[in-house]
Design a protein that fits this description.
Elements lengths: L1 H32 L5 H4 L7 H7 L4 E7 L4 E7 L11 E4 L2 H17 L4 E6 L7 H9 L3 E4 L2 H6 L1 H5 L9 H10 L11 H34 L3 H5 L5 H7 L5 H18 L10 H9 L8 H33 L5 H5 L6 H11 L8 H7 L4 E2 L2 E2 L2 E2 L3 E2 L5 H17 L1 H12 L7 H22 L5 H19 L1
Parallel strand pairs: 1-4, 4-5
Antiparallel strand pairs: 1-2, 2-3, 6-9, 7-8
């Protein structure tokens, strides 16, 4: 009995080894034949509509959902019928070793179930998915994105439970991918990647500067409540020179008006600010600011003033880099010919849009920016039409800034703004008009980029004048 049992056990072990070797060979072959599809193949060849997305998920694909974390990601796999192929969620770390183990797990699963291609759906969480998506594409695995809002809305369809965690989310994501509810991720390349990084850095430094100015205001309000009347603009050159050395009334009274002028002279400042030295001393003599804890507040004000000056210098350097990067864009000279659209605004818009060649129409960019029109209507009820606010909020911000700038600096856009706000039929509010002008400006930028044309004010106003002529003709 012992000999027979041992023989059977050896046969089972040998069969398992043979099966394992066969599985490894299949996995290696699948790994060599993997092909990653990106937006370049799928979105630039016409519209990548819902039917196309469903057709892309073919029966030979292993559909994988991945929940992104800061340190650990989780995978679950299904087939095109929604049947789960993985026994449990597979965790892996956000490292090279973790990525390699995830690929080995995916290949083994694909080989076991006869799949030849792999598509991984991600729920983008901050910036943690960037490295994983790039690594997967470089290793032949297609990557798609699902909307986090869609994952949240479908969490009860899986198990009629409000539970939402790292183990449940990957399957929800995989089911959304299987049903074609996904989009293709886009990571800017070349000059577009540089523009996005530099504009993000500029925004972060601007936020730091605003934070430092607000803290500076707080300290001055406590120890020198009259500082606004005494200094005027708190972050002006003359004020900053004083705040770095003598920020409070006692310090100012100690050096007197002549000492203030010497500080300004040493800082090589020129202008009419010198005449305010006597007035600053008068406010310092009459100040009702606190006298206790002044040493700590003085240190804080000096530090904040130095930080603001340093941030101003860094922001000026970044602005110079952004202006240089703008000239590397296709049709950059034509785009900069639009009055009111300078290098700063253009860099912000293009950084958020990325490569415009991936879009087929301007409406796609309008939807990306959250400026697409939506309305909720049912039966006799007709809801109010408004913009969706879904999309890249920074792109929406820069388009709105561009609309305000062109409306303020160009005659043709002033005329357009006046037409929208005063027309007889359906006049718009000022904010609504600026949103419409932002969409109009977006179409102009898209046309210049696509066709290489130049900005033409007459062509921009042609539709408006045609409507005006028709109104005059109908009245006659």
């Amino acid at each position: 009995m012992n000999a027979k049992s041992s023989s059977k056990k050896n046969q089972v072990v040998a069969a398992n080894i043979f099966e394992r070797e066969e599985l490894v060979r299949k996995a290696e072959k699948i790994g060599k034949d993997l092909r990653a599809y990106s937006w370049k193949e799928l979105e630039t060849h016409g519209k990548f509509a819902k039917n196309d997305k469903i057709s892309f998920i073919s029966d030979n694909m292993l559909v994988v959902g991945c929940d992104i974390g800061s340190e650990t990601h989780y995978l679950r796999a299904i087939d095109t019928r929604g049947r789960e192929l993985s026994t449990k969620a597979f965790p892996f770390s956000n490292t090279a070793e973790g990525f390699a183990s995830a690929k080995a797990w995916l290949l083994e699963l694909a080989a076991r179930h006869g799949k030849t291609q792999i598509v991984v759906g991600l729920e983008p969480t901050g910036h943690y998915w960037f490295c994983l998506a790039s690594w997967l594409v470089s290793n032949g695995i297609s990557v798609v994105q699902v909307n986090p809002y869609a994952v949240k809305q479908t969490k009860e369809l899986e198990d009629n439970s409000q539970r939402k965690d790292d183990l449940k989310d990957p399957k929800l994501i995989a089911n959304l991918v299987k049903d074609g509810n996904y989009g293709m991720p886009y990571l800017p390349e070349g000059v577009y990647g540089d523009l996005r990084r530099f504009t993000l850095l500029r925004d972060q430094l601007t936020e730091d500067r605003i934070r430092a100015v607000n803290r500076l205001h707080r300290e001055l309000t406590i120890c020198f409540p009259e500082y606004k009347d005494a200094f005027g603009k708190v972050d002006g050159a003359f004020t900053m020179a004083l705040l770095k050395t003598v920020p409070f009334p006692a310090d100012l009274k100690a050096i007197g008006a002549d000492g203030i002028r010497e500080i300004w002279h040493a800082a090589k400042l020129r202008g009419r600010g010198y005449s305010r030295a006597e007035e600053i001393i008068r406010y310092a003599e009459q100040s009702v600011g606190l006298q206790d804890g002044v040493d700590g507040s003085r240190t804080a004000v000096i530090w904040f003033a130095e930080q603001i000056a340093s941030l101003d210098q860094k922001l000026a350097e970044i602005e110079e880099v952004l202006r240089a990067k703008c000239h590397e864009l296709p049709c950059a000279e034509n785009l900069l010919e639009i009055p009111g659209v300078g290098g700063t605004i253009l860099a912000g818009i293009v950084a958020e849009m990325g490569d415009l060649s991936r879009f087929d129409t301007a409406k796609e960019i309008q939807k990306l920016s959250g400026l697409g029109l939506v309305a909720c209507s049912s039966g006799k009820h007709k809801g109010e039409t408004k913009i969706s606010h879904r999309g890249r909020k920074r792109l929406r911000y820069w388009l709105f800034q561009a609309a305000k700038s062109v409306t303020a600096h160009t005659a043709e856009f002033k005329e357009l703004h006046a037409y929208y706000t005063t027309r007889e039929n359906n006049p718009l509010k000022k904010m609504q008009s600026l949103v419409v002008i932002a969409c109009k400006l977006l179409r102009i930028i898209f046309a210049i980029f696509k066709n290489g044309t130049r900005y033409n004010p007459e062509k921009m106003l042609r539709d408006i004048r045609r409507q005006t002529d028709q109104a005059i003709a109908s009245a006659a």
